[in-house]
Amino acid sequence: MSAERTDRVLVIGGSSEIAAAISGELAREGISDAVLAGRDAKALEASAAELRAAGAARVETVALDALDVPGHRAALERAFGLLGQVDVAILAVGVLGDRGGLPEDIPAAVEVLRVNTVGAGSLLMEAARLMRTQGRGTIVVLSSVAAELPRASNAVYCASKAGLDALARALDDELCSEGVRVMLVRPGFVRTRMTAGLPEPPLATSAAVVARATRRGLRRHARTLWAPSGLRWVAAALRMLPRSLFRRLPA
To answer: How many domains in the chain?
Structure first.
């Protein structure tokens, strides 16, 4: 199996800690050019400085807002134009929102769906369109184990990730014969700013572990990754439980 080029990288959600860890892993293997796209200009510049320090030769930033769906096409066309071609696009757009089942603040819960499913889904489709045009490349979609195991303790987040996860799998099926791959990464609980202060479940992991797994997945042309890898078997076992038993498990 031939090696996959990973030296021209686009990070959509460029200030994400997990995405930064992934791009840092790739930088140590020889990123030549990178574009970080996101809303917070200060955070993007900080991430760009870290990526340059990790070895990236050139890092640019592009303004992008996940909720500005009409602006996604122009923003991604600009990012692709800066790179010429994109070998790897990392989609790392998402918010956690309030935990719980039926939310008290329904408008805030809908905002989570708008960011994680509508906004991220729009960006995924625009990136896929541009990769189809160039005829090659990989889109890394940061999903979650929550997409496979929805829990009452975080109903809205689980639903939002399930929607994105399904879209990514379907697009991968459509584009696989055209030289474009959509690789799903399904981490469990990852220690980041977003999860700070939350109780850690078993198999909690770090952004560095997810990044190393992603780099290995790119090398072996994987379609779906679980991080840590043991989550795959845990999820498979839990899916076999009757819902009457599953709902009794600790959150």
So the answer is: 1
